[in-house]
Amino acid sequence: MILSEEVSIDAKNPTVSPSVEIFEVDVFNYQTSTIALLHQLGKKVICYFSVGTAENTRPDYGNFTAVDIGEALVDWPGENYVNISSPAVWDIMKARIKLASDKNCDGIEPDNTDIYSNDGGGLNITPGDVIIYFQKLAQEIHSYNMSIGLKNSQEILPNVSSLAQFAINEECSYQDSTCSAYADFTNPSQVVLSSGIVPKPVFHVEYVNYTDTSAGSDPAATEMTITNDFWPNVTEAVLLSNLCLTEPQSTGNPLETTLKLSTIIKTLELDGWMMDCNGLISVTATTDFIKAAS
């Protein structure tokens, strides 16, 4: 998941690290050529864009009309919720889906479907509205032979799980019951399996702050401090156990054993820095975005 910068790959000698199967990229800012190089290296590419907000930094921002703009997102300047029931907004999203297809994305992460949990975005958006919207998104995305994931929005997961090929969750570890909502998604019962439903992946992202305490400025240096706002005064080992759900439960098994989430640890910058649940840090080479990416 590298959204604030573009993965840097030498076209003459293409390599990329870490050795993972899937990269998530920003659909607007990544060049088609970079996505092609990731494919050449055998990687799947999930393309990110927001389906529930308008961001004033996006090239199609001018296509949103004032009547469809809702409340501002407090922590994200220049971003507002939009009326997902509006035909005009739907036209914008169809164009974004086509852009993802034109860039040969394998799947789409549609962000901000959880408008209903944020005062309806000031637009009285309900869970029922989002379910209908997700159904439309899935149909459109599938028509281009791309997959769709559900981002957060666990409340509607039972209603749309049959439409989603994967899910992405942010920070469910602080509330174990929230992570547990994915139990039937990742590990369906034998009865469910017999009906033809298969296990699906959940890409689980937790966020930390890191401070380099080494003499240099290498973000992959081993001398660094890792902290998390939910658990501010614990050791790194305890923090990793909490974030990755590896702490034994009353049943004797960690939640991770049951839920089978695919967990990575990032910073909110969403750059090339990543930590895995063993505490191993990797830094993917990146470059600044090229404007008007092809």
Could you outline the blueprint of secondary structure elements for this entry?
Elements: E1 6-7, E2 22-26, H1 32-40, E3 44-50, E4 53-55, E5 69-72, E6 79-82, H2 87-102, E7 107-111, H3 127-143, E8 147-151, H4 157-160, E9 166-170, H5 176-180, H6 183-186, H7 190-194, E10 202-207, E11 209-212, E12 224-227, H8 236-243, H9 255-259, E13 262-266, E14 273-275, E15 281-283, E16 286-287
Parallel strand pairs: 2-3, 3-7, 7-8, 8-9, 9-10, 10-13
Antiparallel strand pairs: 1-16, 4-6, 5-6, 11-12, 14-15
GO molecular function: alpha-galactosidase activity
Enzyme class: hydrolase
Domain Glycoside-hydrolase family GH114 TIM-barrel: 14-214
Explained architecture:
Its EC number is 3.2.1.22. The chain is an alpha/beta fold and about 290 residues long. Helix content is about 25%, strand content about 25%. Strand 8 (about 145-150), helix 4 (about 155-160) and strand 9 form a beta-alpha-beta unit. The protein is globular, with a radius of gyration of 19 Å. The two termini are about 20 Å apart. The relative contact order is 0.13.
| H/I helix tally | 9
How do the helices and strands follow one another from N- to C-terminus? EEHEEEEHEHEHEHHHEEEHHEEEE
The count of β-strands is: 16
Calculate the terminal CA-CA distance, rounded to whole Å.
20 Å
